[in-house]
């Protein structure tokens, strides 16, 4: 189907052409105690996520599990002209002026209404009780789904009309407030009563908390690669401006009465802030109750426990994010610890460090090390390793220091760091692995030995072909698998044709039979070769060495075990 109209809600994507509507439920509604699910994990309900509804059908919402895209090509005499949707309803506007209201997520036809105009765009309010309709000529009307008309039927077009309207936005927190763009001016309505217009050419983005956020797209598109904050502006509605003026110019009682006559959570929040500035805790508590601000109530409760008005004023300054004034108040009261706690909550570790170094009473060595580490982490996040190293060194954070040295590939500094690390530190194993990964066997062994892990040290020597060091270390540590390690080392030497080194290895390990067997093999190969007459002295020495190995074991050689060539060489 060709997408001509589209609407998006928190749970649905809705696309329509002139004949049919496609509804995709990309996220299910969350029931109490359940977690939101995505389309890939809907299990048995995955078949009912997508639906196609023809504009002439009367769907009940039951049994519509099969997608039939042939409906999108079925002609109709009254095509779709506009669509809109919220989390609970979907409204189709047809060319004839008929509004068809569907319930979501079942997509069942709820009601039909006639508005006698061709809708171009439609906008539902926050409770789905009213809909603003702008026709193809720019005339705006409002239809109320809950009022009864003259015939007693549910649904009534209100006595409201505006011309040359090109944008509408309902307030998210008040179903009877909306803002419209009419030519080059913005109008804000409360119960169909307009406020003073505001000259602007912006597109309305958001309307909540008595403020309208709008963006000047025309100016933005003149230089789209360099947007600025000036392209997005906020406009306060009249009641918010009047409340602020009343709090600044008249008594608090009159402002409170005005807010009671025009209740809104934002106005009560404004009154609470003004009461806190005046240190009127009773009025602030009352205002926080009306705007349902539990955190504000807890803050008032905390202030009531403070006996010093200066401390209360400092806490209020911090509440309004005037941190510099709050810090000055704490320092004047000689409460450097509170100033430190304030900066800790802000995460301003640089200032925390300054306060701790400036005087006593603001913290201890533990807090000082915490600040050093936090500043070091700040530089690490920005890959400024040298600056981070200086703070980690002051904090004695050996692990973080080692990571910085590794990032910089500064292994000389890492070597110098090893003696400074306490013997019982658990980081030696990791350092040993890091040293081994770059072939630094000696340093890796030193780290493993400090970590009381001699087996890892021997394995590292083997992996790096430091066999002699591995055998020596295994003997020193009395490891149980020394014989196996000797055999592996000897095999390594024999693969490299270093037979004499292998014999020497067996002799040092007091494995005389293995040394004699290897010498016997070498002598036998030499005698069998054609060079025995040229190198008979070497052959004789080999057999003599075999005899010495046997003597070392206190077992004289048996004449029957020696070949005839041995007796000929020893005449």
Report the radius of gyration as a whole number of Å.
43 Å
Estimate percent helicity: 40-55%
Percentage of residues in strands: 15-25%
Low-pLDDT sequence parts: 39-47, 553-571
Largest sheet: 5 strands, antiparallel
**Multimeric organization:** single chain
**Gross morphology:** flat
Compute the average pLDDT.
81
Structural class: alpha+beta
How many extended strands? 20
How many helix segments? 23
Task: Describe, in short, the structure shown.
The chain is of the alpha+beta class and 571 residues long. The chain is built from 23 helices and 20 strands.
Descriptive report:
By secondary structure, this protein is α+β, with helices and mostly antiparallel strands. β13 (165-170) and β14 (177-182) form a beta hairpin. α8 (323-332) packs antiparallel against α9 and α19 (482-495) packs antiparallel against α20. The chain is flat. Mean pLDDT is 81; it is low at 39-47 and 553-571.
What is the fold's blueprint, element by element?
Layout (H helix, E strand, L loop, with lengths): L4 E4 L3 E5 L3 E6 L24 E5 L25 E6 L3 E6 L3 E6 L4 E7 L4 E6 L5 E6 L4 E9 L5 E4 L7 E6 L6 E6 L2 E6 L2 E2 L3 E2 L3 E6 L2 E5 L1 H6 L9 E5 L1 H12 L2 H10 L3 H13 L3 H10 L3 H11 L4 H11 L3 H10 L3 H11 L2 H10 L6 H17 L3 H11 L2 H11 L2 H7 L10 H10 L3 H10 L3 H10 L3 H10 L5 H14 L3 H10 L3 H17 L7 H17 L11 H6 L2
Antiparallel strand pairs: 1-2, 2-3, 3-4, 5-6, 6-7, 7-8, 9-10, 10-11, 11-12, 13-14, 14-15, 15-16, 15-17, 18-19, 19-20
Helix pairs in contact: 2-4, 3-4, 4-5, 5-6, 7-8, 8-9, 9-10, 10-11, 11-12, 12-13, 13-14, 15-16, 16-17, 17-18, 18-19, 19-20, 20-21, 21-22
């Amino acid at each position: 189907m060709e997408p001509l109209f589209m609407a998006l809600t928190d749970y649905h994507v809705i696309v329509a052409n002139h004949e049919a509507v496609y509804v995709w439920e990309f996220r299910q509604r969350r029931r109490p105690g359940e977690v939101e699910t995505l389309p890939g994990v809907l299990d048995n309900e995955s078949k009912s996520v997508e639906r196609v509804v023809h504009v002439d059908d009367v769907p009940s919402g039951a049994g519509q599990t099969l997608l039939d895209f042939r409906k999108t090509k079925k002609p109709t005499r009254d095509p779709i002209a506009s669509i809109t949707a919220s989390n609970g309803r979907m409204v189709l506007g047809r060319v004839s002026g008929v509004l068809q209201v569907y319930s979501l997520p079942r997509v069942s036809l709820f009601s039909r209404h006639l508005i006698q105009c061709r809708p171009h765009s439609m906008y539902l309010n926050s409770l789905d009780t009213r809909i603003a309709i702008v026709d193809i000529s720019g005339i705006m009307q409002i239809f109320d789904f809950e009022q009864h008309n003259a015939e007693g039927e549910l649904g009534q077009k209100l006595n409201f009309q505006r011309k040359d309207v090109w944008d509408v936005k309902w307030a998210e927190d008040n179903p009877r407030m909306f803002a419209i763009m009419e030519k080059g001016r913005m109008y804000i309505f409360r119960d169909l009563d307009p406020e003073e217009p505001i000259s602007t050419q912006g597109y309305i983005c958001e309307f909540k908390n008595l403020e309208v956020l709008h963006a000047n797209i025309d100016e933005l598109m003149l230089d789209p690669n360099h947007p600025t904050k000036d392209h997005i502006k906020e406009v306060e509605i009249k009641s918010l401006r009047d409340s602020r003026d009343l709090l600044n110019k008249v008594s608090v009682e009159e402002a409170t009465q005005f807010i009671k006559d025009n209740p809104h959570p934002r106005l009560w929040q404004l009154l609470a802030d003004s009461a806190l500035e005046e240190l009127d805790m009773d009025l602030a508590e009352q205002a926080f109750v009306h705007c349902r601000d539990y955190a504000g109530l807890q803050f008032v409760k905390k202030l009531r426990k403070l006996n010093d008005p200066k401390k209360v004023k400092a806490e209020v300054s911090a509440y309004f994010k005037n941190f510099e004034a709050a810090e000055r108040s704490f320092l004047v009261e000689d409460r450097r610890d509170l100033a430190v706690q304030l900066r800790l909550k802000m995460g301003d570790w640089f200032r925390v460090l300054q306060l701790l170094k400036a005087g006593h009473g603001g913290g201890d060595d533990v807090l000082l090390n915490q600040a050093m580490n936090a500043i070091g982490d700040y530089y690490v996040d920005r890959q400024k390793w040298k600056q981070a190293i200086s703070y980690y060194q002051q904090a004695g954070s050996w692990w973080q220091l080692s990571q910085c040295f590794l990032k910089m590939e500064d292994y000389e500094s890492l070597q110098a760091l090893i003696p400074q690390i306490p013997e019982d530190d658990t980081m030696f194993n990791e350092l040993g692995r890091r040293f081994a990964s770059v072939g630094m066997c000696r340093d890796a062994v030193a780290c493993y030995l400090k970590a009381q892990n001699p087996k890892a040290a021997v394995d590292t020597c083997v992996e790096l072909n430091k066999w002699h060091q591995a055998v020596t270390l295994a003997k020193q540590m009395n490891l149980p698998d020394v014989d196996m390690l000797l055999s592996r080392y000897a095999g390594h030497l024999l693969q490299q044709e270093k037979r004499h080194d292998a014999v020497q290895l067996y002799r040092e390990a007091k494995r005389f039979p293995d040394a004699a067997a290897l010498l016997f093999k070498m002598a036998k190969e030499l005698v069998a070769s054609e060079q025995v007459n040229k190198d008979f002295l070497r052959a004789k020495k080999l057999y003599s060495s075999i005899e010495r190995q046997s003597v070392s074991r206190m077992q004289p050689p048996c004449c029957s075990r020696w070949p005839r060539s041995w007796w000929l060489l020893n005449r």
